[in-house]
Amino acid sequence: MFKYALNKCYIAMFIALTLSLSVQIAHPESVDPSTIKIITPIYKPNSESFNPAIGEYTYEISWQGIPAAEARARVTLEGDSYKIMTDVKTLGMVSVFYKLRYAAEGLLTADNFLPIWSNFNINENKRNRVIKMHFEEPGKITAIRQDFEKAEVKKIKLNSANFTLDPFSAAFLARAVDWQVGVTREFDVFNGKTRYLVTLAAKEEKQLKINGQWRDVMVIVPTVKNLTDPQANQKLRSAKIYLTKDNSREILEIVSSVFVGAVKTKIKKFVPFNQTTTLAAANEVNYRF
What we know:
Blueprint: H1 2-17, E1 55-63, E2 66-78, E3 81-90, H2 94-97, E4 100-109, E5 115-124, E6 127-137, E7 140-147, E8 152-159, E9 164-165, H3 167-176, E10 184-190, E11 195-210, E12 213-226, E13 239-244, E14 251-257, E15 262-272, H4 275-282
Parallel strand pairs: 9-10
Antiparallel strand pairs: 1-2, 1-15, 2-3, 3-4, 4-5, 5-6, 6-7, 7-8, 10-11, 11-12, 12-13, 13-14, 14-15
Helix pairs in contact: 1-3
């Protein structure tokens, strides 16, 4: 239960936060991601209304009020690109039953948030997997997956005719576009193994009290359809993402329903970076591959 609850929470977090869509176990009838034919819109960020904060976000992930994991997302500027580094780790008694250490990093163009490259390192109990993706041009993606437990390396060349993104670029574009109640956006997201059709729907505006402060937020409801492994869709339930309406478009809270109870991801703190701390932050050992 802890494992599924956390994985469900990661799906929502990785869409919204720039963490990553979880790597699913493929069933025998999984579809080759290169053969999937879908059409999603090409979105352009609104540079006047979106100004992502440079710094580190820390989130607490809890299941039924029990602290289960901690997640960090760190955003820095490198020349004319954004670099995002994230990690997730299970805490306390949860680690006894399900131990996860997850790190991901990606580089995006600063003007339109298109992906350049992204890496994912998943240590799940005793299993270690690494995925590295490189975007040569829109729709042309090379992914290398290494599973150390199985001692295997697989290389995928995805030539997509659609506007296909990685989780980092999808997350930034979703934050960068304008939202009003009733608006729906669709994203074709590839994580090196699985392609997802991610639909985000703006349902309502409200105020949310976080750390003693009231913030105006847009409530976004995500729907995640696994295009590569249709059986996985049977496990997906509902979630709500609380996105601030100011220019930072911060993710304050995510509530995901599971078979028993709910998983809540809530911001604990944000530490802004200045020019002198950015380089040191980008090289912190906890984020290295």
